[in-house]
């Protein structure tokens, strides 16, 4: 029987989901690969995986797509790991580097800068890790994931995009969801949901497995 190919984001915020998946019998039925969000999205677009935890903005590039889990990466307030970082207040920002690792966060930042902060800035597509060294003066940057948690101790001004979205709309925000590019068996989806739930019930164990001195994971 052909295994279902699953692409998962490798950030700390997915560890509860992966904890469950790696300890559930479903692990024997899948081929699991881990990478950053936009890479997983491209793998789903190229049909290199059957289901992936991908930025929701990437669904627009799929010929067909299905949300195949009750679980996602989302926020109903501050999330700490998806932010605009700057040395100056947002009113003084002139240029913004856009993290290459996510499409959804980049689009969210563009919307919020225009509609919430009423800012007209120059956007620069970051192409590598070194872009964080460019966040000086009136140049800010969208940084996501574990690197954002580290950046919190480096930048004077931090604008949490999930918090800003909540303030702007009154709504929660889904950054990434389990999206399939084809219809998958119902029995797989049910078991996959069970696996995702398992890790969320074991947060203490997940945290103890992931030592991260830069931020309180709880």
Describe the structure.
The chain has 218 residues and is α/β, with parallel strands linked by helices. It folds into 2 domains: 107 residues, 3-Layer(aba) Sandwich (D-Maltodextrin-Binding Protein, domain 2); 88 residues, D-Maltodextrin-Binding Protein, domain 2 (3-Layer(aba) Sandwich), CATH 3.40.190.10. 31% of the residues lie in helices and 27% in strands. The chain has 7 helices and 10 strands. α1 crosses α6 and α3 packs across α5. The longest helix has 15 residues. The radius of gyration is 18 Å and the shape is globular. The mean pLDDT is 94.
Distance separating the two termini: 39 Å
Strand order of the largest sheet: 2-1-3-10-4
Topology, number of strands: 10
Average pLDDT confidence is 94
SSE arrangement:
Elements: E1 4-9, H1 15-23, E2 30-35, H2 37-45, E3 51-55, E4 66-75, E5 82-86, E6 95-98, H3 104-115, E7 122-125, E8 139-144, H4 146-151, E9 157-160, H5 161-169, E10 173-180, H6 186-200, H7 203-209
Parallel strand pairs: 1-2, 1-3, 6-7, 6-8
Antiparallel strand pairs: 3-10, 4-10, 5-8, 5-9
Helix pairs in contact: 1-6, 3-5
Which properties best describe this structure?
218 residues; alpha/beta; D-Maltodextrin-Binding Protein, domain 2; 2 domains; five-stranded mixed beta sheet; 7 helices; 31% helix
Quick description:
With 218 residues, the protein is of the alpha/beta class. Helices cover 31% and strands 27% of the residues.
């Amino acid at each position: 029987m052909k295994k279902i190919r699953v692409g998962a984001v490798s950030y700390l915020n997915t560890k509860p989901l992966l904890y469950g998946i790696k300890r559930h019998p479903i692990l024997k039925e899948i081929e699991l690969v881990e990478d950053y969000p936009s890479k997983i999205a491209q793998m789903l677009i190229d049909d290199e995986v059957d289901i992936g935890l991908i930025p929701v903005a990437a669904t627009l590039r799929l010929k067909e797509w299905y949300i195949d889990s009750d679980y996602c990466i989302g926020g109903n307030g501050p999330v700490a790991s998806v932010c605009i970082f700057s040395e100056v207040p947002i009113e003084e920002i002139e240029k913004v580097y856009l993290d290459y690792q996510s499409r959804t966060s980049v689009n969210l930042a563009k919307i919020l800068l225009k509609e919430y902060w009423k800012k007209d800035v120059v956007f620069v597509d970051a192409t590598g890790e070194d872009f964080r060294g460019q966040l000086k003066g009136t140049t800010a940057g969208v940084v996501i994931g574990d690197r954002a948690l580290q950046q919190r101790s480096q930048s004077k001004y931090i604008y949490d995009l999930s918090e800003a979205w909540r303030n702007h709309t009154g709504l929660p925000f889904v950054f990434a969801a389990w999206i399939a590019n084809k219809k998958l068996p119902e029995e797989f989806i049910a078991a996959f949901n069970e696996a995702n739930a398992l890790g969320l019930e074991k947060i203490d164990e997940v945290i103890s497995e992931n030592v991260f001195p830069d931020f309180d994971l709880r």
